[in-house]
């Protein structure tokens, strides 16, 4: 593999993170006042388990669709980025580095369904605002079914990616990777928590946007750190 290919894979991960962050903001980055939608935020609030709904209120269908499709189209960039991180893990040994690669590749491959599913649930509840009350029961039941499916589709890639990053972080901390130990401050599965904490103190609309894109902002930091400076040089010294 050429040095340029490795750099390009790291940049692909960065671009993928930017596009996924934009997609997150488009689909669950709304800032509407829930009080403007009393049917959903009051009348049926106790029967709606879909926690992201307040972040989707008032968003037009075209924006939701673009947010769902953009991330689906951008996933090959994340798959390339997974290979980039794998290269940084190679000194840790074949078994551990391969496990990291498989977890990252599978997690990213499973991500589009867990993301696009928000579109369909959001549209179900938005439709309730435009149909007769007689249809509400059926839509509430459908929304609940979709939400149960979404929990599986969303948690599967999140847990898998988290495990992959946890293994990579362990390899870094033990000095077995191509990264310096201090890089574990950035390349670890807990970065989203710090980003979420920072986003919680930001005013609207920045706060909701950070909340929506927290996972992919974390990956942007990870890929940027891995691709830039001395870490990249150290990874590039590893030959296939």
- Averaged pLDDT, please? 91
Please work out how many helical segments DSSP would assign. 8
User: What structural class do you assign from the helix and strand content?
Assistant: mainly alpha
H/E element order: HHHHHHHH
The whole-angstrom Rg is: 20 Å
Distance between the termini: 6 Å
Shape: elongated
Largest sheet: none
Beta-strand content bin: under 5%
Count of DSSP strands: 0
- As a percent range, the share of helical residues equals over 70%
Poorly predicted segments: none
Written description of the protein model:
With 240 residues, this protein is mostly helical. Helix content is 72%, strand content 0%. The chain contains 8 helices and no strands. Helix 1 (3-28) runs antiparallel to helix 7 (206-227) and helix 6 (191-199) packs antiparallel against helix 7 (206-227). It is elongated and about 60 Å long.
């Amino acid at each position: 593999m050429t040095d340029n290919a490795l750099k390009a894979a790291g940049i692909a991960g960065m671009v993928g993170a930017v596009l996924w962050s934009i997609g997150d903001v488009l689909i669950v980055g709304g800032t509407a006042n829930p009080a403007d939608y009393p049917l959903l935020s009051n009348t049926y609030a106790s029967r709606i388990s879909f926690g992201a709904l307040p972040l989707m209120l008032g968003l037009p269908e075209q924006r939701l669709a673009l947010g769902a499709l953009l991330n689906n189209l951008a996933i090959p960039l994340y798959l390339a980025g997974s290979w980039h991180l794998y290269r940084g893990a190679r000194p840790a040994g074949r078994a551990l580095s391969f496990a990291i690669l498989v977890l990252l590749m599978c997690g990213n491959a499973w991500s589009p369904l867990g993301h696009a599913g928000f579109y369909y649930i959001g549209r179900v509840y938005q439709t309730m605002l435009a149909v007769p009350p007689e249809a509400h029961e059926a839509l509430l039941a459908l929304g609940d079914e979709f939400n149960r499916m979404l929990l599986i589709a969303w948690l599967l890639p999140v847990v898998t990616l988290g495990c992959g990053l946890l293994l990579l972080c362990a390899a870094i901390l033990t000095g077995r990777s191509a990264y310096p130990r201090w890089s574990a401050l950035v390349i670890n599965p807990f970065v989203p928590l710090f980003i979420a904490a920072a986003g919680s103190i930001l005013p609207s609309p920045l706060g909701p946007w950070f909340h929506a894109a927290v996972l992919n902002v974390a990956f942007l930091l990870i890929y940027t750190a891995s691709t830039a400076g001395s870490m990249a040089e150290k990874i590039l010294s590893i030959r296939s």
